[in-house]
Amino acid sequence: MKNNFIIATHNIHKIKEIETILNFYHQHGVGYRKKLPQQAFPPESTESYEKNAKAKALFISQQLPAAKIIADDSGLELLAFPGRYGVQTARELTQEVPDGDLNDYLIHLVDGKSRQFIMKTTIALAINNQVVKIGHGQLKGTIAHTERGVNATGFDRIFIPAGESQTLAEMDQPTRISYLHRARAVKNLLDQLGEANESY
Ligand SMILES: O=c1[nH]c(=O)c2ncn([C@@H]3O[C@H](COP(=O)(O)OP(=O)(O)OP(=O)(O)O)[C@@H](O)[C@H]3O)c2[nH]1
Question: Record's InterPro entries (predicted)?
Answer without folding.
Answer: ITPase-like_fam (IPR029001), RdgB/HAM1 (IPR002637)
